[in-house]
Amino acid sequence: MSASIRRTDILALANLRDDGRKPHDIRQLRIQMGPLSGDGSSVGGSALIEMGLTVALATVRGPVECLRRSDELPDKAILQVTVMTAPFSPAMDRRTANPHNDRRLIESSNMIRQALEASVMLHLYPRARIEINVMILADDGGRLCAATNAASLALIDAGIPMKDFVCACTAGYATSLDMEKTLVDLNYREESSMAGQPAVQLTAAMMPQRNTLVLSQCEARLPSFDAMERVLETAMDGCQAIFKTMQAAVRERTLSLYTMRNKKAAVTLTYS
Fold it and tell me: What is the mean predicted confidence (pLDDT) over 234-257?
């Protein structure tokens, strides 16, 4: 009598994850700089990022005046971050979440703001406000990381001075058959459970060129301090891998803008 072998069993025998990745492989990363930016647009900068099946679109407006004088700071600008989700973005829950009263979205907005404040040179714009809006178009895990990476790229596209990129990635800790392993860049299924057990997930954001950690969040209990160090190191390695793709996208965007400006200058000189 022949027994059928499931795809997950084959991947487990090959020490691969459910989506075919190795434990320390990040998901495929696609970046589009400036999808909403243009001469006639009110958006100063924008970026669309796809981390696997998770998609986030970020836009930046500003620096502009604060809506209320009480919000102004005399020595630096303020960052106003709003994270929103499209009704079709979650895999399971189709309810529309209000970014102003949904606890998870407010918490995500505050964490992204704190991470970006460590890199943005806010002292150059006193009494001003920089508005960042992030729309989650598809959610397959790592929503906070995708939103943080998209916001960082949108700030760069808007020309806001920054000390460094801000890159974010998740890492997880799993035990199976008395073996411990760490995973990087978790998807939705891995965030829900690992090896039939509740997932242990840590989200980290860092300035990769300075090797400075600006955000670390872990809502589960790790068995030891050594395990926490391994998971954090794995997340930071994932941030460094994401940084390489983000840096290449910024260079490509810069080259395209430079080429476009030279073409416009050539046309102006020809017909003047």
Answer: 94
